[in-house]
From TrEMBL:
One of its GO terms (molecular function) is metal ion binding. It comes from Magallana gigas (Pacific oyster). GO terms for biological process: protein ubiquitination. Residues 298-371, 370-443 form the MIB/HERC2 domain. Residues 462-491 are annotated as: Disordered. SUPFAM superfamilies: Mib/herc2 domain-like (SSF159034), vWA-like (SSF53300), WWE domain (SSF117839). Residues 35-228 form the VWFA domain. This is E3 ubiquitin-protein ligase HERC2. Residues 529-608 form the WWE domain. InterPro entries: Mib_Herc2, Mib_Herc2_sf, VWF_A, vWFA_dom_sf, WWE_dom, WWE_dom_sf. Residues 473-491 have a biased composition (Polar residues). Pfam families: MIB_HERC2, VWA, WWE.
């Protein structure tokens, strides 16, 4: 059958399973819900199949020891793709349900996720409240992340082969999991002889609060509901920022003076407090945003950045990995000093940008000129567009060839666009079979200039604390623009001189070696110790470097280096996606540490990387 018929078939199966689940009923109505998707296909290998069963058993055994009775549903995917158990807390029966499962067959993982809709969509409201936290049903996906076609039902009985894995199959899986993940966290546990970490990272990273859980972390992961309950009992958790680890640990000690928490429990509790936004009801979050936004696509404050401007996390960021370390798009002005941003991973929330209240001059985000790169979507918020084949709107776009930025995409096939001259309007992109727009090449000179103009034309007072990643010297088109930039630079110099300690440009204290601190010796004409948050880099222990197209070695930024090292420490064979600037442009790269390579996610070009473990530079 074709894709559409396969989609209809598995959707209908999910609806039927939801009805069966209602007949069976909850075992514990007031408990969190977990949907296990277990890959039993031959691509795992026999050792991988055994590892999958072991991970499943570890988590179920841990659930059985807790006073929170987790509801568990089980779906298997392989020779047979079906529900093994609907929601239940009969853990012994659940654990032994795998005794009847055959190893082998293909990997129609997309079909298994369609079936999960019976639990997370069609089966009613499964949100469980723990204190002030709303705990959504979570999907626990134990697999090697290598899908095969879900459109051929007969292929399930054919043994897996790498030749059966196509980009289309992966795209179908990512599209579905992206949709499910908007409300449902997806936790991926990699198993098998050769798990596809790229696919598993995309699935978990694009979901609401999901993450990769490695085999060594499985037992701790099973305690997550217990730690959510503990976090919900800390008095300040939902009312304050909770961006101070010591405050959280102090509150924990005061609330539970006689209880001992392991280091891993403490880490989980801190993580939950820092990511409290994940435990709001999605519908209430949407209502809250809509209540704040009288006219969602109105530029209310001319001194704030334009809608459609691209941003990254800023100097006062306090939301952990809300942005998944990627860029986003400004889609509304909520109030003075507050922007509504939709990140490229689909999460949408409000952030401070020069708020004048008690959080004076706080910048959660900073402007950037990094384009939106489509993965498998047809269109998305942040895309650049021009008039398309069905354009009938005259000069609304300011003239043929002018570029606009997409600020909202609706499932009906309608999108909202902000054009260069400021007009915001809606257009068809698929509705009634019409395409008023076409996607613009994000790396064309016109697109690059468009994004850089969004940064440069933001009123300068609003750019305090917002780092700008455009090379202004290379973008002066005439004498006037050059003089404007020079005047802005002069103004910036003055602002640096008068900036307070609250500003991003903090004063630098020069300290002579041996003067204030103990040193074995004082070296004449030694470079003073300097602490700075500026763009300069020092050659530190365990510093990663990348080679540019000119053969020059460059250090990764402090934040990126810490992220790579964290992944390297966890698993030297893992990969991680990072963003780095090359020739004044930001690109996304996949860092493959085991091969000392980084791969450009857009061009697929490969360049060298290396780890320097001493204080020297390459």
């Amino acid at each position: 059958m074709d894709f559409n018929h396969a989609q209809e078939y598995w959707n209908s199966q999910a609806v039927l399973e939801a009805k069966k689940s209602c007949g069976v009923g909850y075992q514990n109505v007031r408990s969190p819900c977990n949907v296990f998707i277990l890959d039993t296909s031959s691509s795992l290998g026999k050792d991988g199949f055994a590892q999958m069963k072991e991970m499943f058993s570890i988590i179920i055994d841990e659930y059985a020891t807790q006073d929170i009775k987790e509801n568990v549903a089980v779906i298997v995917c392989g020779r047979h793709t079906k529900f093994l158990r609907h929601y239940s807390s009969h853990y012994e029966d659940i654990k032994h349900s795998l005794d009847e499962v055959e190893f082998g067959g293909s990997s129609p993982l997309t079909a298994a996720f369609f079936l999960s809709l019976a639990c997370v969509k069609y089966g009613g409201d499964r949100i469980h409240r723990i204190g002030a936290f709303c705990v959504h049903p979570r999907i626990i996906f134990i697999s090697d992340g290598r899908p095969t076609s879900f459109t051929n039902l007969a292929s399930a009985f054919v043994e897996d082969s790498p030749l059966d894995e196509t980009e289309n199959d992966t795209d179908h899986l990512l599209q579905l999991t992206r949709s499910i993940g908007k409300k449902t966290p997806i936790f991926c546990i990699p198993v098998g002889r050769n798990p596809d970490m790229t696919t598993l990272e995309f699935i978990s990273g694009q979901s609401r609060g999901g993450k990769i859980v490695f085999a060594s972390e499985a037992r701790q992961f099973a305690k997550y509901s217990l730690n959510i309950r503990t976090a919900s009992m800390l008095s300040f958790t939902m009312d304050n920022d909770c961006n101070d680890n010591e405050r959280i640990l102090t509150s924990l000690a005061c609330k539970f003076p006689d209880k001992i928490f392991t280091e891993m429990d403490q880490k989980d509790i801190i993580d939950i407090c820092l990511r409290k936004y994940l435990y709001q009801s999605v519908s209430s979050m949407k209502d809250e945003i809509e209540d704040k936004t009288e006219s969602p696509h109105e530029e209310k404050y001319p001194q704030m950045p334009r809608l459609g401007s691209r941003v990254r996390r800023g100097r006062d960021w306090r939301y952990d990995d809300h942005d998944n370390y990627g860029p986003g798009t400004i889609v509304s002005h909520l109030k003075e000093g507050t922007l509504l941003v939709e990140w490229d991973n689909g999460i949408k929330s409000d952030y401070r940008f020069g708020t004048k209240s008690k959080c004076k001059n706080k910048y959660d985000v900073q402007l950037c000129s990094e384009p939106r790169i489509l993965v498998s979507e047809l269109i998305a918020t942040g895309c650049l567009v021009t008039r398309g084949k069905d354009w009938i709107w005259g000069s609304q776009d300011g003239g043929a060839g002018n570029i606009g930025s997409v600020i909202s995409v609706h499932s009906s096939g309608v999108v909202f666009v902000r054009w260069q001259h400021g007009l915001i309007s809606n257009y068809k992109f698929g509705a009634d079979g019409c395409f008023d727009l076409e996607i613009s090449d994000p790396f064309s000179p016109e697109a690059i200039k468009f994004l850089q103009d969004h940064v440069k034309k933001t009123p300068f007072d609003s750019r305090d604390g917002a780092q700008v990643d455009v090379d202004e010297s290379n973008n002066c088109t005439d004498g006037n623009s050059s003089s404007t930039i020079n005047s802005l630079s002069e103004k910036n110099s003055e602002s640096v001189k008068t900036s307070s300690f609250d500003s991003v440009n903090r004063p630098i204290l020069h300290v002579t070696k041996g003067k204030y601190f103990k040193n074995n010796s004082v070296v004449e004409n030694a470079t003073p110790d300097i602490e700075t948050d500026g763009p300069t880099f020092t050659c530190a222990m365990n510093q990663w470097w990348w080679k540019d197209c000119e053969g020059k070695w460059n250090p990764y930024s402090r934040e990126v280096n810490e992220r790579i090292n964290k992944c390297y420490k966890r698993d030297p064979k893992s990969t991680v996606i990072v963003a780095i600037k090359d020739q004044s442009l930001l690109f996304s790269y996949r860092v493959v540490m085991a091969k000392n390579q980084q791969i450009n996610q857009t061009t697929r070009d490969i360049s060298e990387i290396k780890l320097v473990t001493n204080w020297s530079c390459p």
